[in-house]
Amino acid sequence: MIKHIVFFRLADDAEGKSKAENAAIIKVKLENLKTLIPQIFSIEVGINVPNLPKTDFDIALYSEFDSLADLDIYQAHPEHIKIASYIGKVRTSRAAVDYEV
């Protein structure tokens, strides 16, 4: 099993929307990938509680795949590329970890 964890920091305003609006859009679009990409074993997207001190990121993506090959399929899938492109326009930073269990 491969666990894929990604954190995003979002711009305060981007693409004509607030940080909160973009976070909500990203959450829905990423979670909808489960119905579009069968290689996703599980996926969860959390939006950081607003205005908490000492938080570095706004969104956490946690997903699981049966294999590295399935993760590769997910990352190359056109629907994933579409949302990744949107995220690229509204994020200011990203951190990711992939590990095997």
How would you characterize this protein structure?
The protein is an alpha+beta fold. The chain has a single domain, classed as Alpha-Beta Plaits (2-Layer Sandwich). It is built from 3 helices and 6 strands. The chain has helices at 19-36, 68-76, 78-90, and strands at residues 2-10, 13-14, 17-18, 40-47, 59-65, 91-100. The protein has a 4-stranded antiparallel beta sheet. A two-stranded antiparallel sheet has the order 2-3. The protein is globular. The relative contact order is 0.32.
From the structure above, extract its key features.
101 residues, alpha+beta, Alpha-Beta Plaits
The CATH topology turns out to be Alpha-Beta Plaits
Instruction: Give the domain tally.
Output: 1
Structural class: alpha+beta
Give the beta-strand count: 6
Kindly estimate the percentage of residues that lie in beta strands according to DSSP. Answer: 35-45%
Q: Quick one: overall form?
A: globular
- Helices, by number, come to 3
Order of helices and strands: EEEHEEHHE
| Helical percentage | 25-40%
Poorly predicted segments: none
Q: Terminal Cα separation, in Å?
A: 5 Å
What is the CATH architecture annotation?
A: 2-Layer Sandwich
What's the overall average pLDDT, rounded? 96
Return Rg in Å: 13 Å
Output the strand order for the largest sheet: 4-5-1-6
